[in-house]
Amino acid sequence: MPSRRSNRKKNLKHSKRPTKRRNKSARRQFAKAQSQRRRFSEKRIGALFEELVAVQARLRAPGGCPWDREQTHRTLRTYLIEEAYEVLDAIEKENPQEMAEELGDLLLQVLFHADLAREAGTFDISGVIVGIHDKMVRRHPHVFGNVKAETAGEVLKNWAQLKAKEKQLSSQQVSGVANPPPSALAGVPRKLPALLEAYQMTRRAAQVGFDWERVEGIFEKLAEESQELRSALASSNRRAVEEEAGDILFAAVNLTRFLGLDPEVSLKQSNLKFKDRFLDMEKEVARTGRNLSELSKDELEGLWEAAKAKSKTQTSPGQDS
Question: Any idea what DSSP says for residue 183?
């Protein structure tokens, strides 16, 4: 027979059960999540991918999700762009967990479009995978073949040449006649945002050797374009002003690319910097009970310089301007 002491321990244990149950429940959920992650990590990537493909197919199947079943390639365009930018945002934040999540959302967009194509009988996700697999092997002969490429510049030049040959061969197979090599700019979508379009065009031109030899040449070009804009302004010709302003932007994109930077990323960082400083200005003036619109130009400039100085103290040397 159990002793009274053991009964008291048992009763005491029962009296504390609700609290322990909650803690145990939390521990169980955490342990379950860890177990699930281990279970997923132990699976082959192919099996995980097939499960995801099946999930998307189920959403589109009869009895699936009404929203998913209504979508088309055209209706999904906005989401594809949004997901790509959310990945960029996660990269900028240097948040691995958020980046993994956003990459998953972007991957789902790829699967969605592939599933729509499968239903239409044009292609499916296997065609997408085989296509990019073969392209990566074909475009990297310095890795999978006998071609020598010691620098990133040589790799890009080889890539451009291989791409041009592939497009020429593809065109010849369709038309049945030998066509001249396609332009190095072929494949740059006209519907791209202007900043990205300029970057892609100058990058592709550089791959075939059409590039500045030194950065000073681009600075000289910027000065030249600035002077031409001044002349256009003096003539009060709006069309000429628009053209010359565009030339300055194009030269700035070229400069950023030449320095090995992505102009979109660079401009995004500057946009964020401006936003933070402007918000600081609004916060400071709000303490006086006024709005920015009520201040003079000198007062606004003073607030801006103060916000600029504050932001510089919050960043490490060399990271701000």
Answer: P
